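Predict structure. Chain length: 110.
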Amino acid sequence: MSYYSRDWLYEDAIKVYKDRTGSKPLEEEKEFLKEFFNTYNDDGAKSIYYMAIFRLKRGYYKFIVLFLIERALKKKFKSGENLDTLVKLHKIFAQKILNNAIKAYCKISD
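Prediction complete.
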């Protein structure tokens, strides 16, 4: 992962936000997303991502892992103030995290 820039998850999240809402996120939403999708931060999206890979390795079904990711994201997004748009988009972010976790799980399994 060293060849990625530090903010590649953040840039991807901003792109998804713009595609779904049609507008740029507010400044407070940008700050929250930048902190949450920081690859050097251990309590944001990175921990949810590794939790998903761990559960896939343990044999959990995909829909259960997706549900757990959605629940964790919704809880994190609700903890921020005035982030109603992000709470509405938590399922899309969860699907992206699950897809990336499945890719990593397939590489591990080979």
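Summary: The chain has a mean pLDDT of 82.
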